[in-house]
Design goal:
273 residues, alpha/beta, 7-stranded mixed β-sheet
């Protein structure tokens, strides 16, 4: 990742309040990934694009020796505070998912919870996930699917968004089984991709939920900032976003509910012969 692209990505994820999003909308995903990876006491675990530790902290609580890596130091600092409050210790390392500063075959489990999927170069990211996993070790990911709520939210933003970096792939492709199989190839075995969903129900109305995303979620904040000098375009973005959230709402009229599909990916690294 170029210095300029990395700086933009850091700024994107440092904007808003991603720790709030992780705590309020997706708290169950980290523990689910830890369970799916069968993390045990003494395992050497790397959480890639860990954010504030949604998966890394539960892995440490399970007794693993955990390293949480992320491109955004502001998120790592929040993670340190959360871990301290919960009485667990782990290492926090600033790192790019596409060029990890770790040795080959270093970890028993390498995982990422809706994090590494946002690195622009999918193949470079997959190559790094495989490289740092020991032969026979586990690679585990939770990724939003293209057809699910987050994939479609990002698709709604796309016409209004800045041009992506050259060579960047859409993040939700990591939720497509064929894409994941192509990225990992024959370097892994036992690869499974299981589709699950959570329900986001913290807001009462589509309008309230729209403002939640605008205030707290970096990718949405970035799009709104990109259009800040064009009031008419901002108004149209608001209308399109509200229409999307209204169409996806499965609430009861009193409380909103937005089902969000994700892909749970697990595989084991094949030993080189």
């Amino acid at each position: 990742m170029s210095v300029d692209v990395a700086a933009k990505n850091r700024a994107l994820w440092a904007s808003g309040d991603y720790p709030k999003v992780a705590a309020e909308l997706i708290p169950a995903l980290g523990p689910e990934l830890v369970s799916a990876c069968r993390i045990r006491r003494g395992d050497r675990v790397l959480d890639v694009a860990a954010g504030c530790g949604n998966a890394a902290i539960p892995a440490a609580r399970a007794g693993a020796a955990v390293t949480a890596s992320d491109l955004t130091p502001e998120l790592l600092e929040v993670g340190r505070r959360i871990a301290a409050k919960r009485g667990v210790e782990l290492d926090w390392v600033e790192a790019d998912a596409q060029a990890l500063p770790f040795g080959d075959d270093e970890f028993d489990v390498v995982m990422s919870c809706v994090g590494a999927m946002f690195a622009p170069n999918h193949q470079a990211t997959a190559d790094e996930l495989v490289r740092v996993t020991r032969p026979g070790g586990t690679i585990g990911m939770i990724n939003w699917t293209p057809e699910g709520f987050l994939g479609q939210l990002l698709a709604t933003m796309r016409p209004y968004a800045p041009q992506p970096a050259p060579g960047a792939s859409p993040a939700p492709l990591w939720g497509d089984e064929n894409h994941v199989r192509e990225l990992f190839g024959d370097r892994v075995f036992g690869l499974t991709v299981r589709r699950e969903q959570i329900v986001m129900d913290t807001c009462a109305t589509p309008e309230e939920f729209r403002e939640y995303w605008k205030a707290h979620y970096g990718p949405v904040i970035s799009v709104y900032r990109h259009n800040a000098d064009d009031p008419d375009r901002l108004a149209q973005l608001d209308r399109d976003f509200t229409a999307f959230l209204t169409a996806w709402n499965r609430g009861d009229g009193v409380r909103g509910a937005w089902p969000a599909e994700y892909a749970l990916v697990t595989a084991m690294k094949r030993a080189v012969r």
